[in-house]
Amino acid sequence: MEEFLGENPHKRLIKELVEGKIFAVQLQSLLKQPNESVLADELIRKIWGSFTQAITELNSLGNSDNSLTQSQIEEVDQPNSGSGLKKKKKEKQDRRGCYKRRKTSGSWMRESETMNDGCAWRKYGQKKILNSKYPRCYYRCTHKYDQECRATKQVQIIQENPIKMYHTTYFGNHTCNSTKIPKHTYNSQFNHAMVKHSDSTVLKEEEEEEEESKGQSDNASSIVDSNLWQDFMPSSPSAHDSTLTANYNAAYYEGVISSHDMEDLAKFGEIEAIEFC
DNA sequence: TACATTTGACCACC
DNA sequence: GGTGGTCAAATGTA
């Protein structure tokens, strides 16, 4: 990466992103082979480095309005950074309503017959939504405070007859290590979930894959969930090769690279495994 | 007692 | 000004 320092920023940026893609492709093929976790780990570090460098370049290219502050960059780089201390009791002042309305980007959705997705969620709100028959429920990760996990989701019933269907929108990535919960809490109905990435295409109907994977595990949803939150995270670089995983991972990175950026990137090769909206 | 849920209030965003 | 997202006190539950 350092060898690009003499070139113009635009070229450096492109090279970083292309490198990142190459590493990702290598990682993808590597993950198809067993016992390659060390190499995979190395590749993930390279990918991480490429994207970090690219973000830095982008930041230096952009005007002041578009540039991230250093703290914002660090926040992206180190989602687990911080004190790690419990924040159960914040400042004395009433902070109700003090929030930034989130963007819809960086989110993905699924529709299923159950709310259960194998993660530990805690409900923190419910709201009647305009023009909607059913209220929307707001959930955050149970480990928001003890592990500073920022994952949240919104669940809304979209139909009740003939069967109850839930529309779930996920925001942010889990940074906690406690996404695994006892088997009995899973619901096989999760296997019928439809996963959508943000507001774009339906990505995967899991049913067929579930049938195939039943021999490997009697709890396929746990695999989905561990893929969902952990596999592409730098802190736990093990991954499974599945389209679903790739799409979830794309959702994770979506928070770092915008769709506009991806359009530019597309000039330099097809993005196959990762789908951005 | 600890943790989860409910619910009204607050306020940023459109 | 209306709507939606979040907070936190009150309440419920194991």
From TrEMBL:
Gene3D superfamilies: WRKY domain (2.20.25.80). It holds the Pfam family WRKY. It comes from the Eukaryota. It is found in: Nucleus. SUPFAM superfamilies: WRKY DNA-binding domain. Keywords: DNA-binding, Nucleus, Transcription, Transcription regulation. Residues 110-179 form the WRKY domain. GO terms for molecular function: DNA-binding transcription factor activity; transcription cis-regulatory region binding. Residues 74-83 have a biased composition (Polar residues). One of its GO terms (cellular component) is nucleus. Residues 74-105, 198-221 are annotated as: Disordered. Its main location: nucleus. One of its GO terms (biological process) is regulation of brassinosteroid mediated signaling pathway. PANTHER family: WRKY TRANSCRIPTION FACTOR 21-RELATED. This is DNA-binding protein 3. It comes from Solanum tuberosum (Potato).
